[in-house]
Amino acid sequence: MNQTQLPGSGRPPSASSTARNTMRDMWDSRPLRPRDDRKLAGVSAAIARRYEIDPTLVRVGFVVAAIVGPGIPLYLAGCAVLPDAGPPGSPVPPRSGPSSALSVTLLVLAALLAVPLVLSADRVIPAVVTVALLVALHVTRGNRPGAREAAASPTPVVPWVADPHAPTVAQVTPPAWDPLGAAPFAWDLPEPGPEPGPPPAPRSTLTPITLAVSLVVAGMVGVLALAAPGAVPASAVPGAALAVVGVGLVVGALRRAGRWLVPFAVLLALVTAATIPLNDAVGPDGWAVRGGIGETVEAPATVAQLAPEYRRGTGSVQLDLTRLDLTATPGATGPVRTRAEVGAGAVEIRVPRDADLLVRSSVGTGDLTVDGQTRTGQDVDLTVNDPGPDGPGGRVLELDLRAELGTVEVTRG
């Protein structure tokens, strides 16, 4: 087996020395942030030119990384460590030198934003995966022909092509007045025309092929959903198409193609998010579950009108229960129960002033306010058992409330 050896020794390089060399090479060959193709600070355009990938897909990657955690700190760090190319025509700035106050400020801000990633276990993995993907991108595409020249140049490096309109020796126009016949080759020849331009580059077939495959896969999943109701959720149909489009985006990033897949990916993501709450359209006891995007605003006047469950993927659930009759009678005893849940949004419940309350509430990230008690933070739970100002008596109103991202509030009317 052929292995690169350390200079002056007969041993192959260790993993630690290889990692140091990779980090040093990434630093020494870091690209310049151009000004001719930037949307914010030019970080995405610089990375795209350095590794010869599509800048649109790099920007999409930063947006996704910002959603899962490390995107904003990484972008700020890129603004700090990647030099600005300056205006067009300006000399190439040095890659090393004294750090500016702005660069130091951006690095400090990026470090402060990265602290929650280190403290939160569910965000450490996305951060590590993102950094590992950047390193893998450098290892696999950092030495491609033209990549380092593109990193060192404030403008994209393109191969030199002769001007097709420049005259050649055979195209030189003979003089209009030739009394001595010095140019007999031009007597009977037609005037030379312009050289034909280069043929247009063939259009990439990645987008239509990816969309066609996604339709086929979504159709197959749809057939399974219809053949086995309940076994395949409704969100699996657009989710399968979204997975195929995601693979197409990854391939397109490496081939500098497929940017028209981005709007289809956004649309499929919205459709998938809207159909996720519909997976439980009918609960285990036949409960009606409301899902999707928007608001649920209801004010049931009787216990019979109160649904066992209310749910929104994105939006709010607002229930006015102040008109419920919770008086215990021989035909109506036991607690009155309901459940409300949102993925991102708010759960707002108003209950009768004298109701006997048992509230079990939680938020993934956000605020809880139940009967005057407040909690704020991540993975917060709050259970309140309050018989009301008049003491125990009547039917207990049991509420199970949950918001993944947002607020839960229960107040007495």
Automatic annotation (TrEMBL):
The name of this protein is Phage shock protein PspC (Stress-responsive transcriptional regulator)
Key words, A-Z: Membrane, Transmembrane, Transmembrane helix
- Tell me where the transmembrane regions lie: 57-78, 98-119, 209-228, 234-254, 261-278
Quick check: keyword Transmembrane helix in the entry? yes
Stretches assigned to the Phage shock protein PspC N-terminal domain? 30-84
Bias class Basic and acidic residues marks the residues at: 22-34
- Taxonomy, superkingdom: Bacteria
